[in-house]
Design a protein that fits this description.
four-stranded antiparallel sheet; 4% helix; mainly beta; 1 helix; single chain; 191 residues; three-stranded antiparallel sheet
Length: 191
Amino acid sequence: SPSKFAVFRCGSVRSRYGQQADQLSLDIWGEGQNLALDAGSYNYNKDLRQHNWFRGTSAHNTVIVNDQDQMVPHRKFKYLNWTKARAEVCSANGSDYSILGVHNGYTRLSGRWGHARMISMAADSWIIVDRLWALDPNEAEARLRLHWQLAKGELGIEEGVAEIVIDRKSHYFSFYCDQKEFDLSSATGQE
């Protein structure tokens, strides 16, 4: 609906211009409020470290493997190892639908990691499922971090579950992980 929508980044990089390492990143809006934000480019004239953060994977709502960008930064406006990605609409039924995105940005790392994200809108709720797998199971150890840029809210973490309440009346995010240890990072506003 016009009051609730999302922008899903999933597509192969085809040009060196305007590149960001943001495959499977999600920007979510609800009732005129940007709930899960894309950091944007901010400023092209700041120092290189800050510029690289804003265009890098850590500034986007996606999974990060071994604290690495999905592509290799090279110069101020260019990446190497461009990602290949594809998306498929899995189902659509009225206002409920699902889309699946897959990218290869981490296959260059030890373990050759794959990442898929399923996004569903059902019963007026967003459901996001991330799956990561090692194509080389002999080197299947990695630090996986789920990162979200969220509107200001309160964070609570219990065993296996993290919940962020943005507006008690209408918006909250719950994160579940089937691992005993997991990394979840969230940033808001000036952080």
